[in-house]
Amino acid sequence: MPHPPRIALAHDWLCGFRGGEAVLDRIAQLIAREFPHSPPPRLYIMTDDRRPLSPAIDALPKARSFLSRIPGGNTRLRRWLLPLYPRAVDGLSRQLAADHAREPIDLLISTSSAAIKGLCPPTGVPHLCYCHSPARYIWSQSAQYSGGLRGIGLRLARNGFQSWDRATAANVTQFVANSTHTAREIARCYQREAVVIHPPVRTDFFTPDPSVPREDFWLCIGALEPYKRFDLAIDAAAIAGARLVIAGGGSHEGTLRARAAHAASTSSRRARIEFAGRVNNEQLRDLYRRASVLLFPQIEDFGIVAVEAQACGLPVAATAGGGALDSVVDGQTGALVRDATPQGLADAASDVARHARADGSWHDRCRANAERFAERVFDGAMLAQIRRLLPGSAG
Predict the structure, then answer these.
(1) How far apart are the C-alpha atoms of 162 and 158, rounded to whole Å?
(2) Can you name the residues that pair with 9 across neighbouring β-strands?
(3) What three-state secondary structure class fits 197?
(4) What's the CATH code of the domain at 358?
(5) pLDDT for 60-94, tens place per residue?
(6) Is 205 a member of any domain?
(7) CA 216, CA 272: separation in Å to the nearest integer?
(8) Number of Cβ within a 10 Å radius of residue 205
């Protein structure tokens, strides 16, 4: 009789619950459900802050690298420790090998957006890597991280880390990308092909509510950080004279509030720009259900917000790039804006809101499109990859 498979998990770090942790959480739940007789997977991480995240993640036994013992290693200061990432991952590889010698594993699954994909599996053990992105601050967004003292450190470490990162791609048996955009980045950075499996979206929670009337306001959701390009959304609202609600928090909030105040005072069309602060899931769903259009000016590797919005029947005006090319159907569930300027975004958002207001089928199409990204779709696709890589005696 085949023995229950033993699976190990790996993740860069646990310092908050965001998109990467949502994927890890879902994979942990999937393993527990599909392989109930298997022991709980051990999770290999570079560092964490020991805070509770989710029942599935909290229950996993954990192996941590030496970075977890360095002051600041479990905070945002971990970015300064980039030159130490290869050493941390190599140490975890040795720990994994020692654990495997005592209790052999059948499969390693990593979820990575930094360095953990470089973890070396024991000989003969396949490594399935769900890659959110090759490390952005080294490969695709290095210019955005080039300022200040941290930028000097990144520039000094970049070439060495790139060489290590590219070489350790050979430790991965199969890459999985969260979008077509990320699959192209994996091919560019690592010269490897990737299967695309989009992240799981809670379409059973994010649902339309016909009893909630749509209101005449635009919506932006996310961290208030420069790369989100909410400055573009503010300028677009000023041009169109629209009411814009921005939900979220972050280091750029003061700058955005000042820009919004200036835009509102100088707009000839009386724009209203409001900051809702950080919102919980119920408040977020309510905003999706009431807004007339979601503005998505940034380029994300996937961008789960755009799918959550559509799951609630809300169309999206998105910059034509990144994961939005997978999630937004131009002219059917929103608009893909190739003229990524305030005027271009203002025109697209106004058109989408007008069309959706006149034709209720827009909301139905948004909901139907979002179902392509449901949790059950993710589960089925990931389980197929897991079973394909498990040895015949274990699967």
Answers:
(1) 6
(2) 43, 109
(3) coil
(4) 3.40.50.2000
(5) 999 999 999 887 777 766 777 888 999 999 999 99
(6) no
(7) 11
(8) 14
